[in-house]
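Page 47, continued from p. 46.
Same chain as before, 136 aa.
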Amino acid sequence: MLYTTTATNTDGINGLVSLSDFPEKIKVSHPLDNDLGFNPEQLIALSWSTCLNATIQSLLTARGYAHIKSKVDVTVDLHRESNGVGFFFDIKAVATIWTLPLDIATDIVESAHQRCPVSKLIKDAKTVQLSVQIAE
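Result:
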């Protein structure tokens, strides 16, 4: 094992969460309220964009493209289930890589998606999409 953290939530969607390896508690709040605090949508977007882009950058370096810039934008939409009971996330990621041909960029992003730990958790979900674009 390389790293472990534990998050403890005793307040539900409005309150504080503690992390085993972080000294301060983190405020969480409902996404439809105007209260300060993070919500699950923000945290999954943050997690996946960070993990996937770090993996893309590692692959760019390994393939001799360390000078190439990349970014990942993740949008998370909260929806109510069609039967009115419960909710689900619709997650869309756009990976952008500068100056590479689209086929090479797509190969790198697809490889990163297979390796990124967050991608491994969500890649088979029906409401997760990943696309690639090139920037100049």
